[in-house]
Structure formats: C-alpha cells, structure tokens
Amino acid sequence: MIRGPSPIVAAEQKPKLSTLRRFLQYFAPYRQEIPIALLLVMLGATTQSIGPLLIGWAIDHLILQGNWPGLARLLVLLVVIYVLGVVAIRGQIWRIGNMMQRVLGQLRQDLFTKVQSLPVSFFDRSEAGDLMSRLLNDVNTVNQAFGLTVPQMLGQAFSLVGIIIAMLSMNLQLGLLSNLVVPVMIFTTGFFSRWARRRFRVARETIGELSAKLEEDISSVREAQAFNRTQLNIQEFDSLNEANRRANVQAVAVTSAFLPSIDFLNTLATAGVMAYGGYLAVTGAMSVGVVTAFLLYVQQFFRPIQILSQFYTQAQSGLAGLDRIFLLLDEPVTLQDAPNATEMPPIRGEVRFESVSFGYTENQRVLQEVSLVAEPGQMVALVGPTGAGKSTIINLILRFYDVTEGAVKIDGIDVRRVTQSSLRRQIGIVLQDNLLFSGTVAENIAFGAPNTSQAEIEAAAQTANVHEFITSLPQGYSTLLGERGAPLSQGQRQLVSIARAVLINPKILILDEATSSIDTRTEALVQEAIARLLQNRTSFVIAHRLSTVTQADQVLVVQQGQIAERGTHAELIAQKGIYANLYAIQLGAS
C-alpha cells in the first residue's frame, strides 16, 4: 500500500497553543453552561480553602481559651461548609464531564464525516487501521487526558488561587516563603512537558501503525495461512509491537521522573514553612493557630500543584492525539462539487470521453488522449491486460477522480458540473468482489436506497435470481449476515449485489468481472440476472474472459492507457489484431 507522509513530521510543525485553541472552539456551543460550571468550581474551591483558616482561628480563640460550646458550633459550621463543598464539587464534575463528553462526541462525528467526504485518492495512500486508530484510540486518549481530569483540574486551580490569597493575607513573609518553589515548579513542569509531548507523539504514531498492521493481518488471515506467511506476520507484528512498547515506556519514564521532582519541592517547601513558622511561634511573632493553619494550607497548596503538574504532563498525550486528529480534519478534500454545481437531470445514458488524459500522480499518466462514445442502451466492453487503465475509465465515469485533461460527459453534461451525489445515485455498479455489510439481507439489498419498501426489495431480488435462495434462509430477508456477508458464498454475495444494483434502477451500469470466482451453476444464475439488468441500460463491462463480451455493442481494447482497438467482437476478430490474438489464446486454453 502507498503510504502518505508521516503524521509525526506534520504534527511537530503544529504549535501547541494552536492545537489547544482549536480544541477550545468546540466548547463554543456551551457558552451558557460554562458560567454555571465555573460558579460551582469556585464554590467548591472556596469551601476547601476556608477550612484551615477556621481551624486556625478555632485553636487561638476557642480551644486555647476553653470555649467548648463555641468549638461545637464551629464544628457544625465546618460540616455544613464541607457538605456544601461536596455538593458543589459533585455538580461541577457532572456538568463539566457531561460537556466534555459531548465535545468528544462531536469530535468523533467530525472525524467520521471528514473520512466519508474524502476522495478515493486519499484512501489510495492511507491505511484503514491508522484511520481507525485516529477515530478510536486518539479520541480515547483525548478523553483520558481531558475528559476525565478537566473537572478536577479546574477545581484544583481555583483552590490554589484561594489558598494563595489566604496564606498571603495571614502572613505575607511566610506566604512568600511558601511560594518560592513555584517558579522552580513551573520551570520543571515546562521542561518535562516538552519532553513528554515528543514521547507521547511517537507513542500515538506507533499505535496507529500497529492498528493498521492488525487490521491488515486480520482481514488477510486466510491468505497468510494459504501462503504459509503466518510466522513472518507474527515477526513483523512483534517488531511494531516492540516499537510501541518502547515508545510508551519512554513516555511513562518521563512521567515517573517528573512526579518525584514535584514531591521533592513539596517536601522542601513544607520544611521551610515548619522551620520559619515554628521560629515565629516560639518568638511570639505568630500564634499557634496561624502556624497550624499555615501547615494545613501548605499541604493543600502543593496538592493542587501536584495534580495540575501531573495533568499538564498527561495533557501532552492528549495534545499529541489532537495533533493527529486535526491533521486528518485538515486533510484537503481535493475532489469537491463546483460552487455552481447543479443536480444531474434524469440520465438517458450517453457517455462520452473527449480526449481524456489522467494520472494518479503528476509524473505518471495512466490514460492518454482517450476518446469514446457509448450511446444510450449500448453495452461497452473494456478488455486488456491488468494495469492498462480499464478501472481508471470506470472511476472517471463515477467521478472518483477528476480528469487531468479533456472531459467526461454524460448526456452532454460534464460530470464536474453536477453534484457527485446526484450523479452516482443514477449509476449502478457490480464488482468482482462486492462488499456486503453486517446487517440483514434486506438491508444489504437496500444499501443504495434505504427507504425502499419490502415489496421493492423482493422484486429486485427476484430479478437478480436470488429471491428463492433468500426465502430458504432461516429468517428469510431478516437473516443477519456477518462481516463481509458471511456465511454466504461468493456467488450468493454476487447475486445480492446484483439485486442491490437492480433496486436503484440505474441508467448506467458498471460491471467489473462480475462472473469470475464463482461456480458454473451459480454463474448461469448470475449471467441470467445480469442479462435482465443490462436491458435498456448503458453498460460498461470490464472482462478478462472474452467469451462473456461477444454480444457487446462495442469492445474497447485498452493498452498502456490508450484505446488500441475498438469495434464489435466480429469486427475485431476480422482485424486479426490484439483482440483476435487474446481471444484465440483463451479459446485454445479452454
């Protein structure tokens, strides 16, 4: 698979504040809820910071003076204050947590919407596992870093402000002494956060690569066993798994080195307050109650700093996840509807390529000056070697890509002038390996027209020669299918896919080797169903077995990006050129 540019490189170039600022924009719809949440945060912080002040006052004015009734009343007041604080903290956690989960839900929705809108060219160079990692793992990392800790972090931040105000108002000198370590803590936090973010970014990238490998190997386990490659796959997975382990260990190592540093500064500040505060108490410059309150405040003072510092470090993992998420959200949608695009009118079925050239990259052209005309109701067969450009022609009709030069027109209308949805809803496609989804048989048939009735679904199934088989299933049309249509056989899945195409009643039909990889008996049913499907429709058929296209109105031999020969089967046989040689070889092989 072609890999795109490393998201790590791009993420390194994105400023951290820009990422955070963009994330905060997701909170704009909750402007009315934020003040209420902040009010609860301030109320909870106030109840926590007022406790030591009251306790210190009680020591000096109640306990040392033996005023026990007053102490009892104060204890009741403290209980009321702390209960009020518990209620406020519970409310802030619920409100902020609920808000965060709605923001994260919107982030997931934006990611999925973006993935659905990206052109096919993006998926040519991207891995499904890495995209799933961004949708699931990265959003979950953001949830763990912010969704579960932001309520606590906000509460601690306001508590810290309240504690600082209380300490400075009680004794300016001792308060300043307690805050001497704050600049050191800020420097330490900044140093570790930059280190941690780089480590966590690598960890997010390696988990994306691991997810991509896992998805690829699980989906191809049958091929791996058939080609005796399982041991090599295990070794490759082990290598990626080891890289992910190392990245996470290095990230955790940063955190494990950070927390003891904060604890050391906490102990240092506490020792300084105890020494100086004890000296002031002994000399009579400060009362015992004030010293006690200060010690309680010091313990409370460093708890918010520890929590905020730990949150700041953990947030680096969340910011690394946000970097990858926003990189995907910023992926340009290179194929869009034109600003003045109109709805495609009901298609008659004329398809015209006018000197079309196309390349998946700037340096390599896949099609060169291709011109063709398919009249309404005609069957056009595309034959030629693998890689000649047959599928590219089909992709341009569906406008999965835009032509580099020339134009693709349907009924005289350039496909770039109409909306993609109005164009594609009138084109049916049956592939060699059609994908069925987890769901009922009826839901799979109605995939392109989900609002159709049960009677219409059954009529489409009858046209596709699959109604009888479906009714023999245990729950009939309500039978649940597993991933990729299990347990249906290849031929049965093909018939369901034909019913899906019948249901949308397209005027243009695309068949990509629709009868390969199935048994002879089922092939007869498929051929009969396809014959019904082709009636009164313009069709493009990619075929490797030339015996299936002898009745085509046009046979186009595609070779090296150009139409080398064109004509009916009989005309091309008479020319004794490329097509005649291919047909003779296949006829001899049969």
The biggest sheet, with number of strands, parallel, antiparallel or mixed sense and barrel status, is: 6 strands, mixed
Which class do the helix and strand fractions yield? alpha/beta
Number of helical segments with 4 or more residues: 21
Q: What is the number of E strands?
A: 12
What name does the CATH topology of the largest domain carry? Answer: ABC transporter transmembrane region fold
What is the first-to-last residue Cα distance?
Answer: 34 Å
Examine the secondary-structure arrangement and name the CATH architecture of the largest domain: Up-down Bundle
CATH level-4 homologous superfamily of the largest domain: ABC transporter type 1, transmembrane domain
How much helical structure, as a percent, in the residues?
55-70%
Count of the domains: 2
Residue runs with pLDDT of under 50 for 5 or more positions: 1-15
Gyration radius, in Å? 35 Å
Mean pLDDT: 81
Beta-strand percent range: 5-15%
Strand order of the largest sheet: 6-9-10-3-11-12
Q: What general form does the structure show?
A: elongated
CATH class call of the largest domain: Mainly Alpha
